[in-house]
Write a structure and sequence with these properties.
By secondary structure, this protein is mainly beta. About 15% of the residues lie in helices and about 70% in strands. It has one domain: Lipocalin, CATH 2.40.128. A hairpin with a 2-residue loop joins strand 9 and strand 10.
């Protein structure tokens, strides 16, 4: 409900406050659109749940929720789109483009084990590139539908370290990486309230569709303490899908130059496939640790992204 209220407030504000400006997505003739923006909001990675699962199995260690989910990301929606006019009634134009997105977080969290407490931190990055192609359907005056197909290349990495204070005292380091490719179906909507302002919605609704790569998942963790050492690893395939909704508005600062504002919410569902898992200690094979690595990898968890995006775009006409 809070998200819906925020969307309503943004759209109402744009409707009341912005006048004398052109439409957001309407393209006349052939054009190259250059765009970029920034994002402020929260990013929760599936690695958080995976770490919780593996730590419970391997050392009866309970992780608290990770902190520092919210931050500002300066590379968001950076890319270009080319629009080619079709002039075929409802079928207005064909478009193809590429878009880069990057999110970085410095997470911190605490943990508890039977006779001690842990202090943990991790530097995290999430990067994905969308290659999209679609058409613009001018179905009614001022109203356009933009069905599209998106191929997304995704990668994420967590480099972590932690200290355990108690019995045993310990130090650990970890690198967890994952990535893959997936085909996604999406659709956009644009509505011109007048010649001066446009509201828009952009959705990813289904995937994987037509194309899915096996991807790759890998986790390596080393831990040393008073009287022991442990090495744990897991690797295998990696798949994902995405559902996204973006709601906002756009106006022109000068001919060809547009300012955009939107509320973003995205859920990516991810899991490893057919992983190899192993955990060994200085005294031999660690059964529970190995099981924890396997369960952690194969569970379906989510990346959650939600926040506010501000951006600009500039159209170069090729008439």
């Amino acid at each position: 409900m809070i998200f819906i209220r925020n969307v309503a407030f943004l759209l109402t504000f744009l409707f009341l406050a912005v006048t004398g400006i052109s439409a957001q997505g309407k393209v006349e003739g052939n054009a190259l659109r250059i765009k970029g923006g920034l994002f402020y909001g929260g990013v929760k990675t599936d690695f958080e749940k995976r770490n919780q699962t593996s730590d419970i199995f391997s050392s009866a260690e309970v992780n608290q929720d990770w902190k520092n989910h919210r931050d500002l990301d300066l590379i968001n929606g950076l890319g270009v789109d080319y629009f080619h006019s079709l002039n075929s009634g409802v079928l207005s134009n064909f478009f193809i483009g590429i878009q880069l997105n990057r999110y970085g977080r410095s997470y911190q969290w605490d943990s508890f084990y039977p006779f001690g407490i842990g202090k943990k931190e991790g530097d995290y990055s999430l990067n994905y590139t969308d290659i999209n192609a679609g058409v613009t359907l001018a179905v009614a005056p001022g109203f356009r539908i933009l069905p599209k197909y998106v191929i997304r290349s995704l990668s994420q990495q967590l480099d972590g370290q932690y200290f355990g204070l108690g019995n045993p005292s310990k130090y650990g380091s970890q690198t967890r990486t994952a990535g893959g490719l997936s085909g996604l179906l999406g659709v956009g909507f644009e509505y011109d309230i007048s010649e001066s302002i446009t509201l828009f919605a952009d959705l990813l609704v289904y995937g994987p569709f037509l194309f899915r790569s096996k991807g790759e998942y890998n986790n390596e963790k080393f831990e040393i303490g008073n009287g022991f050492a442990t090495f744990s690893t897991a690797n295998g395939g990696y798949t994902f899908s995405s559902q996204k909704i973006s709601l906002g508005g756009s106006f022109v600062l000068m001919p060809g130059l547009r300012l955009n504002a939107s509320l973003e919410q995205e859920r990516l569902h991810l899991k490893a496939e057919s992983p190899f898992a192993l955990s060994v200690t200085t005294v031999g094979f660690n059964t529970l640790g190995t099981l924890g690595e396997y369960v952690s990898a194969t569970s379906e968890d989510r990346i959650k992204i939600s926040g506010i995006k501000m951006g600009v775009s500039y159209d170069l006409d090729f008439k």
